[in-house]
Amino acid sequence: MSPIKKILIAEDELLIAKVLKMVLEKKHFEVMQVSDEANAVKQSAEFSPDLIIMDIHLKNKSNGISAGKQIRKNGIRCPIIFTTGNSFEQTKEEIKSIENSHLFIKPIDSDQLIKYIGMNF
After folding, report:
1. pLDDT tens, 104-118?
2. CATH number of 6-120
3. From the CB of residue 11, how many other CB atoms can be counted at a distance below 10 Å?
4. Within 10 A of 36 (CB to CB), how many other CB atoms are there?
């Protein structure tokens, strides 16, 4: 697998998205940020990310898991790291059904995330 260079962040909370984007750009990743399911699906095809960081609950009551499933249907196979503030078993099971996906429970420690990216991709 080639190294991660481009990351798509799908996060509806602007402060979280901006901080995460800043941290990743400091580590020399090219980052695009979107806030809803439709743009996550669209930009996964147009931006061609090497990794997607996707919140479960997105803007306009849209859903990151649904976006992840559509992204896979579109043939995009890059890793998806889902993020959520809850750890419900149903959510975990839905994420398991999406190949090459991982789950981080919020709040996310940016140092741990960077380390995880470096060690796993």
Report:
1. 999 999 999 999 998
2. 3.40.50.2300
3. 24
4. 18
